[in-house]
Specification:
Layout lengths: L7 H25 L13 H26 L3 H14 L9 H20 L3 H22 L3 H13 L11
Helix pairs in contact: 3-5, 4-5
Length: 169
């Protein structure tokens, strides 16, 4: 019989699972002196053991999911967080025009320009961060899926001609 050729990812998953099964087999022999295949059904409450293992699995998955959420910061997460922080500090107590919010972003751009002109790299980096924080706040306020629009715009930009638009810069 020919061995089934699997995609590399599938084969990697199967190999990893086989290693886990082998490890569990060895642990079972050390802990119980037997394997699950050799164990007498009357010695174990298989349903209870399966339920306990399932409960542990859920705990492991919840813990890992929480860890991944902490590690995975998306652009949209930053938008929501910037908005929530600004709101908690009173910056959204009164409604402001979009033009005012855009002017505040522009003020951060001007501050970054001044820091760069002075050669202050640290202050320049802080002002660049402020530009994005103000932009994220605006997107959070307006419910804009910034991540989607950035990816969409970057894909569009790939199709544009060299120095498109005939502009000098």
């Amino acid at each position: 019989m020919n061995k089934l050729e699997r995609p590399i990812t599938t084969q990697n998953v199967l190999d990893a699972f086989a290693r886990v099964l082998d490890s569990q087999y060895e642990k079972g022999i050390k802990k119980y002196g037997t394997t699950i295949d050799q164990a007498k059904d009357s010695d174990y409450d298989w349903n209870l053991m399966a339920l306990e293992e399932s409960a542990d699995l859920m705990k492991y998955l919840i813990k890992e999911n929480a860890r991944l959420r902490k590690e995975k910061t998306t652009i949209n997460t930053l938008c929501s967080e910037a908005y929530e922080i600004a709101k908690s500090k009173g910056w959204h107590d009164e409604e402001r025009e979009t033009g005012t919010l855009l002017a505040l972003i522009h003020s951060e751009v001007s501050e970054a320009l001044e820091a760069d002109r002075k050669g202050d790299k640290e202050h320049f980096a802080e002002e660049i961060a402020d530009i994005f924080i103000r932009g994220f706040d605006l997107c959070g306020l307006k419910g804009i899926n910034l991540e989607y629009h950035i990816l969409k715009k970057m894909e569009y930009n790939k199709s544009r001609t060299y120095k498109h638009g005939g502009k000098a810069y």
